[in-house]
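User: Let's play a game. I give you a shape written as tokens, and you guess the letters that built it. Ready? Here's round one.
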């Protein structure tokens, strides 16, 4: 007998937060300034959803045939500095329907968790800017800073499960806008993995990761969960 859904783990940027790819635009800028010519689509294709040092490594390897840890650290340091400046002026908003969906899930007794390939400082700065509060608007935040292994490893999902005493991963849904989000959910053994087309990856890129469903807006998730739990 399948478990009913008890928790949904949402990615942040591109999934529950609309920040117009400011992170990846800033990442591209830092990589370009280090002398590596890549465009935004290449950065998104290779690095979306990843912990950001790993995203830099992946972009350098794929598009410059380069493995240089010193350069990676330099790019990352510049990226973090530039990102703080970018966030001070960026128009960052919740994705359409995010809070309404969180509320509807709460009414169903389902927990909402945000997880992200961002470090904790960056993630919390986003949440502060959109005026969400952990424990009020959503139940928990898990970031790259909280685990030793990053996406597509399942560690962030397992940490969220442990926090709320959930032992069966089939009672968890993972929702994200990148293929690596889907991979994370599959590696955790989630009952459902859901791609969403509001962020980094296109429908075609998400399909490669073979999610159980692909949605075009957050509220499309509710009937999927209701059907699963019925």
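Assistant: Ready! My guess for every position:
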């Amino acid at each position: 007998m399948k478990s009913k859904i008890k928790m949904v783990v949402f990615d942040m940027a591109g999934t529950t937060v609309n920040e117009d790819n400011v992170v990846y635009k800033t990442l591209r800028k830092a990589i370009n300034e280090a002398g590596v010519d890549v465009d935004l689509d290449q950065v998104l294709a290779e690095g979306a959803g990843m912990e950001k040092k790993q995203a830099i490594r992946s972009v350098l390897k794929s598009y410059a045939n380069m493995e240089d840890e010193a350069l990676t650290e330099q790019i990352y340091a510049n990226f973090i500095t530039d990102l703080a400046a970018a966030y001070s002026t960026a128009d960052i908003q919740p994705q359409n329907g995010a809070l309404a969906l969180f509320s509807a899930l709460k009414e169903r007794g389902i927990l909402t968790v945000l997880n992200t390939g961002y470090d904790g400082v960056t993630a919390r700065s986003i949440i502060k800017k959109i005026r969400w509060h952990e424990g009020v608007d959503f139940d928990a935040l898990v970031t790259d800073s909280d685990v030793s292994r990053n996406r597509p490893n399942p560690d962030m999902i397992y940490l969220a499960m442990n926090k709320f005493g959930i032992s069966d991963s089939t009672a968890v849904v993972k929702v994200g806008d990148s293929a690596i989000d889907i991979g994370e959910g599959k590696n955790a053994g989630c009952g459902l993995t859901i791609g969403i087309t509001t962020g980094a990856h296109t429908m075609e890129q998400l399909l490669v990761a073979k999610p159980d469903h692909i949605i075009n807006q957050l509220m499309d998730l509710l009937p999927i969960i209701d059907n699963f739990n019925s």
